[in-house]
Design brief:
alpha/beta, Molybdopterin biosynthesis moea protein, domain 2, 417 residues, six-stranded mixed sheet, single chain, elongated, Molybdopterin biosynthesis moeA protein, domain 3, 7 helices, Molybdenum Cofactor Biosythetic Enzyme, Chain A
Amino acid sequence: MTISTSAPNGWLPLEDALHNALSHVQPVVEAEAVMVGDALHRVVSEDVVACVNVPPADNSAMDGFALYASDSQSALPLQVVDTQLAGMPLREVKLEKGQAVRIMTGALVPNGADCVVMQENTTRTDTDVVINKPAMPGENIRRAGGDIATGATVITAGTQLTASHLVLLASMGIASVQVFRKLRVGIIATGDELKTAGETLASGQIYESNRTGTRALLAAEPVEITDFGIVADDKTALSEVFTNAAHTQDLVVSSGGVSVGDADFVKELVASQGDIGFWKIAIKPGKPFAFGRLGNAVFCGVPGNPVSAFVTTQQLVLPIIKRMVGAASEQVIKPLTIKATLTTSLRRRAGRKEFVRAHMQKNAYGDYDVVPLAKQSSGVMTTVTQANCYIILPAECSEIPEGNSVTIQPFSLLETQ
Protein backbone atom coordinates (compact mmCIF):
# COMPACT_ATOMS: atom_id res chain seq x y z
CA MET A 1 0.00 0.00 0.00
CA THR A 2 3.01 2.31 -0.08
CA ILE A 3 1.93 5.66 -1.48
CA SER A 4 4.47 7.90 -3.09
CA THR A 5 4.52 11.67 -3.14
CA SER A 6 6.37 14.13 -5.30
CA ALA A 7 6.84 16.54 -2.40
CA PRO A 8 10.57 16.98 -1.60
CA ASN A 9 10.01 16.44 2.12
CA GLY A 10 7.82 13.37 1.57
CA TRP A 11 4.77 14.99 3.18
CA LEU A 12 1.45 14.40 1.45
CA PRO A 13 -0.90 17.33 0.95
CA LEU A 14 -4.11 16.77 2.89
CA GLU A 15 -6.22 16.37 -0.24
CA ASP A 16 -3.87 13.70 -1.64
CA ALA A 17 -3.70 11.90 1.71
CA LEU A 18 -7.48 11.78 1.96
CA HIS A 19 -7.92 10.68 -1.66
CA ASN A 20 -5.37 7.90 -1.26
CA ALA A 21 -6.77 6.74 2.07
CA LEU A 22 -10.33 6.56 0.70
CA SER A 23 -9.13 4.61 -2.33
CA HIS A 24 -7.63 1.95 -0.04
CA VAL A 25 -10.61 1.27 2.21
CA GLN A 26 -13.71 -0.78 1.50
CA PRO A 27 -17.18 -0.41 3.00
CA VAL A 28 -18.70 -3.13 5.12
CA VAL A 29 -21.09 -5.34 3.17
CA GLU A 30 -22.98 -7.18 5.90
CA ALA A 31 -26.48 -5.82 6.49
CA GLU A 32 -29.12 -6.19 9.15
CA ALA A 33 -32.67 -5.08 9.83
CA VAL A 34 -33.16 -2.52 12.62
CA MET A 35 -36.24 -0.83 13.94
CA VAL A 36 -36.73 2.64 12.47
CA GLY A 37 -36.58 4.19 15.94
CA ASP A 38 -33.08 2.75 16.37
CA ALA A 39 -31.83 3.61 12.88
CA LEU A 40 -30.56 7.17 13.43
CA HIS A 41 -27.12 7.65 11.78
CA ARG A 42 -27.20 4.15 10.25
CA VAL A 43 -26.51 3.72 6.52
CA VAL A 44 -29.21 2.04 4.44
CA SER A 45 -27.94 -0.95 2.47
CA GLU A 46 -30.69 -1.00 -0.17
CA ASP A 47 -33.09 1.44 -1.77
CA VAL A 48 -36.21 2.13 0.27
CA VAL A 49 -39.29 1.97 -1.96
CA ALA A 50 -42.65 3.38 -0.91
CA CYS A 51 -45.32 0.72 -0.40
CA VAL A 52 -48.13 3.24 0.18
CA ASN A 53 -49.23 6.63 -1.06
CA VAL A 54 -48.50 9.57 1.22
CA PRO A 55 -51.01 10.95 1.89
CA PRO A 56 -53.07 7.79 1.35
CA ALA A 57 -56.15 9.72 0.19
CA ASP A 58 -57.21 13.26 -0.73
CA ASN A 59 -57.42 15.30 2.48
CA SER A 60 -57.87 18.87 3.59
CA ALA A 61 -54.92 21.17 4.16
CA MET A 62 -57.07 23.62 6.14
CA ASP A 63 -59.92 23.94 8.61
CA GLY A 64 -62.83 25.19 6.50
CA PHE A 65 -65.51 23.96 4.13
CA ALA A 66 -65.35 21.40 1.33
CA LEU A 67 -67.46 22.26 -1.70
CA TYR A 68 -67.62 22.66 -5.46
CA ALA A 69 -65.26 25.43 -6.59
CA SER A 70 -67.93 26.69 -9.01
CA ASP A 71 -70.27 27.31 -6.03
CA SER A 72 -67.67 29.63 -4.47
CA GLN A 73 -68.15 32.10 -7.33
CA SER A 74 -71.59 33.04 -6.00
CA ALA A 75 -72.61 34.97 -2.90
CA LEU A 76 -75.54 32.60 -2.35
CA PRO A 77 -75.38 30.61 0.90
CA LEU A 78 -74.51 26.91 0.74
CA GLN A 79 -76.23 24.32 2.91
CA VAL A 80 -73.86 22.73 5.44
CA VAL A 81 -74.86 19.06 5.34
CA ASP A 82 -72.16 17.36 7.42
CA THR A 83 -68.92 17.67 9.38
CA GLN A 84 -65.80 15.73 8.40
CA LEU A 85 -63.13 15.27 11.10
CA ALA A 86 -59.64 13.86 10.69
CA GLY A 87 -59.75 10.09 11.03
CA MET A 88 -63.43 9.77 10.10
CA PRO A 89 -64.48 7.56 7.16
CA LEU A 90 -66.19 9.24 4.22
CA ARG A 91 -69.95 9.44 3.79
CA GLU A 92 -71.13 7.26 0.96
CA VAL A 93 -73.42 10.02 -0.28
CA LYS A 94 -71.90 12.31 -2.88
CA LEU A 95 -71.91 16.05 -2.15
CA GLU A 96 -74.45 17.91 -4.25
CA LYS A 97 -74.20 21.32 -5.87
CA GLY A 98 -75.20 24.05 -3.43
CA GLN A 99 -73.96 22.01 -0.47
CA ALA A 100 -70.84 22.20 1.70
CA VAL A 101 -69.24 20.06 4.39
CA ARG A 102 -67.52 21.50 7.47
CA ILE A 103 -64.01 19.95 7.31
CA MET A 104 -60.94 19.88 9.54
CA THR A 105 -57.25 19.74 8.62
CA GLY A 106 -56.29 16.19 7.64
CA ALA A 107 -59.87 15.02 7.14
CA LEU A 108 -60.82 13.11 3.98
CA VAL A 109 -62.34 15.26 1.23
CA PRO A 110 -66.00 14.36 0.64
CA ASN A 111 -67.00 12.71 -2.62
CA GLY A 112 -67.73 15.37 -5.19
CA ALA A 113 -66.00 18.29 -3.48
CA ASP A 114 -63.12 19.74 -5.50
CA CYS A 115 -61.83 22.46 -3.16
CA VAL A 116 -61.62 23.52 0.47
CA VAL A 117 -62.24 27.14 1.46
CA MET A 118 -60.50 28.16 4.66
CA GLN A 119 -62.90 29.22 7.38
CA GLU A 120 -61.41 32.74 7.51
CA ASN A 121 -62.89 33.30 4.04
CA THR A 122 -66.42 32.29 5.03
CA THR A 123 -69.41 33.52 7.05
CA ARG A 124 -71.27 30.78 8.94
CA THR A 125 -74.88 30.63 10.10
CA ASP A 126 -76.59 27.78 11.92
CA THR A 127 -77.27 25.77 8.76
CA ASP A 128 -75.53 27.63 5.94
CA VAL A 129 -72.21 29.12 4.95
CA VAL A 130 -71.45 32.05 2.64
CA ILE A 131 -68.18 31.99 0.70
CA ASN A 132 -66.51 35.39 0.77
CA LYS A 133 -63.59 34.60 -1.49
CA PRO A 134 -63.80 32.47 -4.66
CA ALA A 135 -61.69 29.30 -4.74
CA MET A 136 -60.02 27.37 -7.54
CA PRO A 137 -60.45 23.62 -8.14
CA GLY A 138 -57.93 21.70 -6.02
CA GLU A 139 -57.37 24.60 -3.62
CA ASN A 140 -56.32 23.50 -0.11
CA ILE A 141 -56.55 19.81 -1.01
CA ARG A 142 -53.60 17.50 -0.45
CA ARG A 143 -53.89 14.86 -3.16
CA ALA A 144 -53.32 11.16 -2.57
CA GLY A 145 -49.68 10.39 -3.32
CA GLY A 146 -48.90 14.09 -3.60
CA ASP A 147 -45.88 13.67 -1.34
CA ILE A 148 -44.94 10.07 -2.06
CA ALA A 149 -46.37 7.75 -4.71
CA THR A 150 -46.43 3.99 -4.27
CA GLY A 151 -43.35 2.44 -5.91
CA ALA A 152 -41.20 5.58 -5.69
CA THR A 153 -37.66 5.29 -4.35
CA VAL A 154 -37.62 7.59 -1.35
CA ILE A 155 -34.19 6.79 0.13
CA THR A 156 -31.28 5.46 -1.92
CA ALA A 157 -28.76 2.88 -0.73
CA GLY A 158 -25.76 4.50 0.92
CA THR A 159 -27.78 7.24 2.62
CA GLN A 160 -26.89 7.91 6.25
CA LEU A 161 -30.19 8.33 8.03
CA THR A 162 -31.03 11.60 9.75
CA ALA A 163 -33.99 12.50 11.94
CA SER A 164 -35.95 13.64 8.88
CA HIS A 165 -35.40 10.27 7.19
CA LEU A 166 -36.85 8.49 10.23
CA VAL A 167 -39.94 10.72 10.09
CA LEU A 168 -40.29 9.88 6.39
CA LEU A 169 -40.03 6.14 7.04
CA ALA A 170 -42.55 6.28 9.87
CA SER A 171 -44.97 8.28 7.70
CA MET A 172 -45.04 5.34 5.27
CA GLY A 173 -45.72 2.83 8.02
CA ILE A 174 -42.26 1.25 7.69
CA ALA A 175 -41.27 -0.34 11.01
CA SER A 176 -37.78 -1.62 10.15
CA VAL A 177 -35.09 -0.83 7.61
CA GLN A 178 -32.10 -2.68 6.17
CA VAL A 179 -28.80 -1.04 7.12
CA PHE A 180 -25.13 -1.94 7.00
CA ARG A 181 -23.77 -3.34 10.24
CA LYS A 182 -21.92 -1.01 12.56
CA LEU A 183 -18.20 -0.52 11.97
CA ARG A 184 -15.98 -2.01 14.66
CA VAL A 185 -13.50 0.65 15.76
CA GLY A 186 -10.73 0.10 18.28
CA ILE A 187 -9.15 3.08 20.03
CA ILE A 188 -5.74 2.98 21.69
CA ALA A 189 -3.52 5.53 23.41
CA THR A 190 0.22 4.95 23.79
CA GLY A 191 2.73 6.52 26.14
CA ASP A 192 4.44 5.95 29.49
CA GLU A 193 3.47 9.46 30.55
CA LEU A 194 -0.28 8.92 30.24
CA LYS A 195 -2.73 8.38 33.09
CA THR A 196 -6.50 7.97 33.08
CA ALA A 197 -8.64 10.79 34.46
CA GLY A 198 -9.23 10.29 38.18
CA GLU A 199 -5.83 8.73 38.82
CA THR A 200 -3.04 10.51 40.65
CA LEU A 201 -0.32 12.01 38.49
CA ALA A 202 3.32 11.36 39.27
CA SER A 203 6.10 13.66 38.14
CA GLY A 204 6.26 13.83 34.33
CA GLN A 205 2.83 12.35 33.80
CA ILE A 206 -0.25 13.85 32.09
CA TYR A 207 -3.88 12.87 31.71
CA GLU A 208 -4.78 11.07 28.51
CA SER A 209 -7.63 12.73 26.59
CA ASN A 210 -7.43 11.59 22.97
CA ARG A 211 -9.57 8.47 23.43
CA THR A 212 -12.28 10.66 24.93
CA GLY A 213 -12.03 13.06 21.99
CA THR A 214 -12.13 10.26 19.42
CA ARG A 215 -15.15 8.67 21.05
CA ALA A 216 -16.97 12.02 21.10
CA LEU A 217 -16.16 12.85 17.47
CA LEU A 218 -17.40 9.41 16.40
CA ALA A 219 -20.60 9.59 18.47
CA ALA A 220 -22.79 10.44 15.47
CA GLU A 221 -21.40 7.59 13.34
CA PRO A 222 -22.65 3.97 13.19
CA VAL A 223 -19.69 2.47 15.03
CA GLU A 224 -19.08 0.05 17.89
CA ILE A 225 -16.07 1.27 19.84
CA THR A 226 -13.71 -1.00 21.74
CA ASP A 227 -11.42 0.90 24.07
CA PHE A 228 -8.08 -0.88 24.41
CA GLY A 229 -6.97 1.67 26.98
CA ILE A 230 -3.53 3.16 27.53
CA VAL A 231 -0.56 1.05 26.45
CA ALA A 232 2.94 1.78 27.72
CA ASP A 233 5.84 2.49 25.38
CA ASP A 234 6.79 -1.18 25.37
CA LYS A 235 7.14 -3.12 22.12
CA THR A 236 5.88 -6.40 23.50
CA ALA A 237 2.84 -4.94 25.22
CA LEU A 238 1.96 -2.77 22.24
CA SER A 239 2.42 -5.68 19.82
CA GLU A 240 0.00 -7.83 21.81
CA VAL A 241 -2.66 -5.13 21.80
CA PHE A 242 -2.18 -4.48 18.10
CA THR A 243 -2.46 -8.20 17.31
CA ASN A 244 -5.71 -8.42 19.24
CA ALA A 245 -7.12 -5.31 17.57
CA ALA A 246 -6.04 -6.46 14.12
CA HIS A 247 -8.16 -9.63 14.46
CA THR A 248 -11.27 -8.08 16.02
CA GLN A 249 -11.64 -4.58 14.55
CA ASP A 250 -12.38 -3.05 11.15
CA LEU A 251 -10.51 0.14 12.00
CA VAL A 252 -7.90 0.91 14.64
CA VAL A 253 -7.31 4.50 15.75
CA SER A 254 -4.16 4.88 17.82
CA SER A 255 -2.93 8.13 19.31
CA GLY A 256 0.72 8.87 20.01
CA GLY A 257 3.84 6.99 19.09
CA VAL A 258 3.82 7.93 15.39
CA SER A 259 6.53 10.59 15.56
CA VAL A 260 10.31 10.10 15.58
CA GLY A 261 11.04 9.75 19.29
CA ASP A 262 13.13 6.89 20.69
CA ALA A 263 10.01 5.35 22.29
CA ASP A 264 7.69 5.82 19.30
CA PHE A 265 7.11 2.20 18.27
CA VAL A 266 3.72 2.43 16.59
CA LYS A 267 4.88 2.96 13.02
CA GLU A 268 7.44 0.14 13.29
CA LEU A 269 4.92 -2.34 14.70
CA VAL A 270 2.23 -1.49 12.17
CA ALA A 271 4.73 -1.99 9.37
CA SER A 272 5.68 -5.40 10.80
CA GLN A 273 2.07 -6.58 11.21
CA GLY A 274 0.69 -4.92 8.08
CA ASP A 275 1.98 -1.93 6.17
CA ILE A 276 2.15 1.86 6.25
CA GLY A 277 0.59 3.59 3.26
CA PHE A 278 1.78 7.05 4.22
CA TRP A 279 3.23 8.82 7.21
CA LYS A 280 3.34 12.59 7.66
CA ILE A 281 0.94 14.94 5.95
CA ALA A 282 1.43 18.57 5.13
CA ILE A 283 -1.03 20.08 7.61
CA LYS A 284 -0.69 22.04 10.81
CA PRO A 285 -1.49 20.88 13.41
CA GLY A 286 -1.29 17.17 12.71
CA LYS A 287 1.78 16.39 10.59
CA PRO A 288 2.65 12.96 12.13
CA PHE A 289 -0.43 11.11 10.91
CA ALA A 290 -0.02 7.50 9.78
CA PHE A 291 -2.35 5.49 7.55
CA GLY A 292 -2.08 1.84 6.61
CA ARG A 293 -3.23 -1.65 7.52
CA LEU A 294 -2.83 -3.58 10.75
CA GLY A 295 -3.51 -7.18 9.83
CA ASN A 296 -7.09 -7.17 8.52
CA ALA A 297 -7.89 -3.76 10.00
CA VAL A 298 -7.44 -0.30 8.54
CA PHE A 299 -5.04 1.70 10.71
CA CYS A 300 -5.05 5.41 11.51
CA GLY A 301 -2.33 6.75 13.76
CA VAL A 302 -3.11 10.23 15.02
CA PRO A 303 -0.57 12.44 16.82
CA GLY A 304 -0.34 12.48 20.60
CA ASN A 305 -0.86 16.22 21.01
CA PRO A 306 -4.57 16.77 21.75
CA VAL A 307 -5.25 19.47 19.14
CA SER A 308 -3.35 17.57 16.45
CA ALA A 309 -5.30 14.41 17.27
CA PHE A 310 -8.57 16.34 17.23
CA VAL A 311 -7.91 18.00 13.85
CA THR A 312 -6.66 14.86 12.10
CA THR A 313 -9.60 12.85 13.41
CA GLN A 314 -11.97 15.47 11.98
CA GLN A 315 -10.21 15.90 8.65
CA LEU A 316 -9.07 12.32 7.95
CA VAL A 317 -10.47 9.67 10.28
CA LEU A 318 -14.11 10.77 9.97
CA PRO A 319 -14.14 10.70 6.14
CA ILE A 320 -12.48 7.26 6.23
CA ILE A 321 -15.21 6.05 8.58
CA LYS A 322 -17.89 7.54 6.31
CA ARG A 323 -16.56 5.46 3.45
CA MET A 324 -16.20 2.31 5.54
CA VAL A 325 -19.74 2.40 6.97
CA GLY A 326 -21.11 2.34 3.43
CA ALA A 327 -22.01 5.98 2.88
CA ALA A 328 -22.34 6.81 -0.80
CA SER A 329 -19.24 8.48 -2.25
CA GLU A 330 -20.91 11.87 -2.57
CA GLN A 331 -21.75 11.70 1.11
CA VAL A 332 -18.15 11.35 2.27
CA ILE A 333 -17.84 14.14 4.79
CA LYS A 334 -17.17 17.53 3.23
CA PRO A 335 -17.13 20.14 5.97
CA LEU A 336 -18.93 23.38 5.23
CA THR A 337 -16.64 26.27 4.33
CA ILE A 338 -17.63 29.92 3.95
CA LYS A 339 -15.88 33.22 3.44
CA ALA A 340 -15.16 35.74 6.20
CA THR A 341 -13.19 38.96 6.58
CA LEU A 342 -9.97 38.73 8.57
CA THR A 343 -9.96 41.39 11.31
CA THR A 344 -6.24 41.14 12.09
CA SER A 345 -3.28 40.29 9.90
CA LEU A 346 -1.83 36.75 9.87
CA ARG A 347 1.81 35.83 9.38
CA ARG A 348 3.28 32.35 9.42
CA ARG A 349 5.78 30.02 7.80
CA ALA A 350 4.49 28.64 4.50
CA GLY A 351 4.70 24.97 3.63
CA ARG A 352 1.70 23.25 5.24
CA LYS A 353 -2.04 23.74 5.04
CA GLU A 354 -3.01 25.15 8.41
CA PHE A 355 -6.20 25.00 10.48
CA VAL A 356 -6.03 28.13 12.58
CA ARG A 357 -8.38 28.18 15.57
CA ALA A 358 -10.47 31.33 15.36
CA HIS A 359 -13.68 33.05 16.36
CA MET A 360 -16.23 34.16 13.77
CA GLN A 361 -19.16 36.51 14.23
CA LYS A 362 -21.58 38.47 12.12
CA ASN A 363 -20.85 42.13 11.51
CA ALA A 364 -23.34 44.98 11.12
CA TYR A 365 -23.78 44.17 7.41
CA GLY A 366 -24.75 40.53 8.05
CA ASP A 367 -21.42 39.19 6.80
CA TYR A 368 -18.86 37.29 8.86
CA ASP A 369 -15.70 38.63 10.46
CA VAL A 370 -13.11 36.27 11.89
CA VAL A 371 -10.22 36.75 14.31
CA PRO A 372 -7.56 34.09 15.01
CA LEU A 373 -6.95 33.15 18.63
CA ALA A 374 -3.58 34.09 20.07
CA LYS A 375 -2.46 30.60 21.13
CA GLN A 376 -2.08 28.05 18.34
CA SER A 377 0.07 25.39 20.01
CA SER A 378 -0.98 21.81 19.26
CA GLY A 379 -1.07 21.12 22.98
CA VAL A 380 -3.45 23.96 23.90
CA MET A 381 -6.92 22.42 23.78
CA THR A 382 -8.54 25.47 25.39
CA THR A 383 -8.26 27.32 22.11
CA VAL A 384 -10.47 24.69 20.45
CA THR A 385 -13.16 25.21 23.07
CA GLN A 386 -12.81 29.01 22.75
CA ALA A 387 -12.91 28.89 18.95
CA ASN A 388 -15.99 28.35 16.81
CA CYS A 389 -14.24 27.85 13.48
CA TYR A 390 -10.97 27.17 11.69
CA ILE A 391 -9.36 29.62 9.33
CA ILE A 392 -8.01 27.41 6.54
CA LEU A 393 -4.71 28.71 5.22
CA PRO A 394 -3.32 27.23 1.97
CA ALA A 395 0.13 25.66 2.16
CA GLU A 396 1.75 28.40 0.06
CA CYS A 397 0.31 31.25 2.12
CA SER A 398 2.71 33.10 4.43
CA GLU A 399 0.86 36.38 5.11
CA ILE A 400 -2.70 37.68 4.89
CA PRO A 401 -3.30 41.37 5.63
CA GLU A 402 -6.16 42.56 7.77
CA GLY A 403 -9.37 43.07 5.79
CA ASN A 404 -8.76 40.25 3.32
CA SER A 405 -11.26 37.48 2.69
CA VAL A 406 -10.34 34.05 4.06
CA THR A 407 -11.92 30.60 3.99
CA ILE A 408 -13.29 29.38 7.29
CA GLN A 409 -14.75 26.08 8.47
CA PRO A 410 -17.45 26.59 11.13
CA PHE A 411 -17.66 24.11 13.98
CA SER A 412 -21.46 24.26 13.96
CA LEU A 413 -24.29 25.13 11.59
CA LEU A 414 -26.07 26.98 14.37
CA GLU A 415 -26.08 30.76 14.37
CA THR A 416 -22.79 32.03 15.78
CA GLN A 417 -22.94 34.84 18.34
